[in-house]
Amino acid sequence: MADDARPFDELAQAAADLGPAIEPPGYQDLLVWIVNTAREVTGAEAASIAVLNQREETLRFQLDVFAWEQNSRGEMELQPTRDIVFFPALLTLGPGEERNIRVGAATPAGVAEKTYRIFVEELPPSSGAPLPAGHVRVLTKVGIPIFVEPTKSTLSGRIQDAALRAGQLSFAVRNTGTVHFVVQSIKLTGYGPAGERVLEGALEGWYVLPGGTRRYDLPLPAVDCPRIRSLGIEVQTTAASLSERIEASAGACAP
Predict the structure, then answer these.
(1) What's the pTM value of the predicted model, to 2 decimals?
(2) Is residue 144 domain-shared with residue 36, that is, in the same domain?
(3) Number of domains in the chain
(4) Sign (positive/negative) of CA torsion 26, 30, 34, 37?
(5) Gap between the Cα atoms of 233 and 172, Å rounded
(6) CB 3.0-4.6 Å disulfide test: which of 55, 134, 197, 253 passes with 225?
(7) What is the pLDDT of residue 25?
(8) Residue pair 90/62 in contact by the 8 Å Cβ criterion
(9) Are 197 and 237 in contact (CB under 8 A)?
(10) Full domain range(s) for residue 52
(11) Whether residue 137 is found in the same domain as residue 39
């Protein structure tokens, strides 16, 4: 690592807790595969979601949809909604069978993008046959984002409220546009008195919905924090590259 910069040890665990930068298309890790997902819904135009059963048994599913918002920690907040219509609501798939789910908007476009999640949830087998002793059945549940496009799409964002206090770096990524973006990566660099890099760290992110804010609060290593004179924050999103540099005031690392 350049300039003998030490990594943020705490950030490695923090990154693991933040979830993927973006949900992988196809959900290849699941035996039930969501394919060909059309996530944007415009006016009366319907989107199509294909569900493929890759198991060697017949599977049953139920579907439900929710309005999707986020809190400042990036956690999903879901509310029942009738803004999105879909068919069918119940689905039975034989081995290797694929079916399409039709999804449409029952709400007009607004100034900002409207965001939803449709869930495809596996049901227990209708036979009700007990599992062999020691076996566990894991039922799949997949949440797929649905976006109703606004009347005018703008992509923009900014870093705000960046500060180093009591040995903790805090900042927020705010979506100032009318459509969602995804935080793909975050790079953090601590600089010493001569401008040398003394700490480096990297994080992944997730969706930031229009008008939403994603906050980050990260403790810095106590042994290295006093050496830091400034901190650089670089955020790569699907909307833009954002950057901010803050100065570390005297006593910023004191508890």
Answers:
(1) 0.79
(2) yes
(3) 2
(4) negative
(5) 11
(6) 253
(7) 35
(8) yes
(9) no
(10) 32-148
(11) yes
